[in-house]
Amino acid sequence: MNRYDLAQIAEGMKASFEVQLTQEMMAAFRSITGDENPLHCDKEYAKAAGYPNTVAYGMLTASFFSTLVGMYLPGEKALFQSADVSFLAPVFPGQILRVLGEVSYINQAYGQIEIKAQVLNEADEKVAKAKLKVGVRSETGTRA
Amino acid sequence: MESIEEIQSRLQEVFRDIFDDQAIVLFREMTAKDIEDWDSLTHINLVVAVEKEFGLKFNLTEIKGLKNVGEMIDLLARRLSIK
Hints:
The complex is a heterodimer of chains A (144) and B (83).
Chain A lengths: L13 E7 L2 H11 L4 H4 L1 H6 L9 H15 L5 E10 L8 E12 L4 E9 L5 E11 L8
Antiparallel strand pairs in A: 1-3, 2-5, 3-4, 4-5
Chain B lengths: L3 H15 L21 H15 L5 H5 L4 H14 L1
């Protein structure tokens, strides 16, 4: 886990990691949320709808922005404040995703960073993008 | 150098964009109590949007001391005249 302070963060700073979206993750998400939509749960239903497999929950893909912020950028001192997410292409269980983020703006007064983030599939296609706003806790706590 | 009226006009557009409300009309005594969605997080969004619009960065002391929109306009006028 990274532990960046605001002073250690600069505009243009990047972080990335890879994660495989698994059936186990799909089942856990289904259990947590109660989202039983057959597009995510029923392979035959998804195929009849024109997909090669069940479609991954968009918010499951988006959950990896939490990993990006909480573990990598800024890491431990993160206070996730907002996420404006768009789902650009379907994701399927089994795919390996690359999650990337770049600091696009720093507000010194309130200790907040803006991150432009995206998720790419194995073919390097953008499947999700987001603008994230993250507070960075100081020694004396958040200024927000 | 920009006049106070021009600064207020630009600031008003920022408010209208952040709060997604074209009906907002700024007045000097305006505070967060005058706009329903003006909470702590939208306040940060507002400050960031003002920084980007006017091309400057505030420090916490400057921002915390502001009592109303009129004082923000005065702060912008001071900062822009120094640029």
